[in-house]
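Re: your question about DMT family transporter

S., sorry for the slow reply, the queue was backed up all week. Below is exactly what I fed in.
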Amino acid sequence: MSRTPLTDLDAAGVPAGPAADQAGLGPALVALVAGAVAMGLSPVLVRFVSPEVGPFASAFWRVALALPVLWAWMRWEEARAPRLRRGLTPSAVLAGLAFSGDLLFWHLAILGTTVANATFFATTAPVFVVLFAWAGLRRRPTGRTLLGLLVCLMGGATLVGQSVQVDPGRLVGDRDGVITAVFFALYFLTVERARTRGLGAARVTFVVSCITACVLLGAVALLETRPVLPHSWSAAAGLLALALVSHAGGQGLLSVALGRLPAGFSSLVIFLEAVAAAILAWLLLGEALGPLQVLGGGLILAGIAVARPRRSTRLA
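Result:
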């Protein structure tokens, strides 16, 4: 997928060029994979805390409890790279609003339908990334990107397709899963845009989290009908893990990757997230993991390998 030229500073405030691109590809891919695993834990944790905390409240605590850690990371990153841009950009604000919508509908989908259905519909996010980038930003995807996306979609369908249920009683939750995918696609594109404007990964994640926390606090005040605070230490620990691992870790690492990798390729992280979620649900919730799930995971890895950027491609 072609990209418009980015700022002449990389994520560390160092002039970007071919050498920096070559050096940054490996760490960016590692950040992408690690972020996917961290975000893959979120459905398990949301389900774990759901008996005590409502969906809007758990989404709020996910971002609010992560803010001190993200603020410290931002200060550390900008102290190391003083040439990084400070303040806000329109793209960072839009990323915060997109992530707010993503979290609201993702938490509703997890509780409104099966984990398999929610995951299946959420995995369509890369399709929307490609479509929005093509229609709105005039970025025509390469054949490799489309082939990799197709293989990943086949893998995602194989991974969760056996567990997907067509149930009229769950149609609202299924719809919320699709809306989640749309918002997640917008989040990828706006975070990428904010990174190209010279904001560091930590500042982007912190700004997104501040905006999301404000939006979700309003949702809690207006819409939450279930408890807001946990009443057990185990649920409180689950919320803290959701904040520190899935949000600060997962979203932070994704912001790092989006400073180096195209949004179209990076959006395939949601397929890795589905693989991680399936494995974690098997380990922690006892959900079945059979040959079809293993095949689906293999197809997803193959699709990502096909779509990966070439080392000669400008990534920063």
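Residues 18-307 form one domain. Confidence is low (pLDDT under 50) at residues 1-23, 312-316.

Happy to talk it through on Thursday.
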